[in-house]
Amino acid sequence: MTDRPDILSGMQRALRQLDVRQRVIAGNLANSDTPGFKALDVKSDFANMVDQRVGKADNPTVALTARMSELGAKSGNSLGVRSDVIVDNSATEIKPDGNSVNIEEQMMKMSQIQTEYITLINLYKKNISLFKSAIGK
Questions:
Q1: Nearest one of 98, 106, 29 to 67, comparing CA atoms
Q2: What is the 3-state secondary structure (H, E, C) of the chain?
Q3: Into how many domains does the chain fold?
Q4: Which domain holds residue 50?
Q5: Is residue 1 domain-resident?
Q6: Closest C-alpha to 119, from 15, 22, 43
Q7: Is 45 inside any structural domain?
Q8: What is the average pLDDT score of the chain?
Q9: In this structure, how many other beta carbons lie within 10 angstroms of the beta carbon of residue 39?
């Protein structure tokens, strides 16, 4: 048995996923001029839940190459990034140098992450407030 109700644990898990996704998108923006860099994203928590119920599907993951290491890249695990980071196949354009990062799309994703984060924090605060009033504090 856990100390937290399921709804709070779920919100905490969602906040952690938003944190990881924000780091990945920030990495995309930082590499927007790196030749051959492919935009990354995080596999959704819903997709992970389906994989657990139905069976693990093969999803593309990014393997660290020697050239990436030479440029200073670190493995996803050393950065604290989970293995559900995948190549973003929804890129609408690829530059002539092979880079698939579209700054406008990445900024829209960052805005979406911020909105979801604020919403989750407000829900979390509201639930804590309800629990406090339930116990008379």
A1: 98
A2: CCCCCHHHHHHHHHHHHHHHHHHHHHHHHHCCCCCCCCCEEECCHHHHHHHHHHCCCCCCCCCCCHHHHHCCCCCHHHHCCCCCEEECCCCCCCCCCCCCCCHHHHHHHHHHHHHHHHHHHHHHHHHHHHHHHHCCC
A3: 1
A4: 6-132
A5: no
A6: 15
A7: yes
A8: 80
A9: 24
Distance CA 133, CA 41 (A): 39
pLDDT tier at 70 (50, 70, 90 boundaries)? Answer: confident
pLDDT, mean of residues 17-22: 93
pLDDT on residue 89: 81
The pLDDT of residue 47: 53
| pLDDT, tens only, 72-113 | 666 554 444 455 788 888 778 889 998 999 999 999 999 999
pTM over 0.85: no
Answer yes or no: is 66 within a domain. yes
Tell me the residue length of the chain: 137
Tokens standing for residue 70: 């030479």
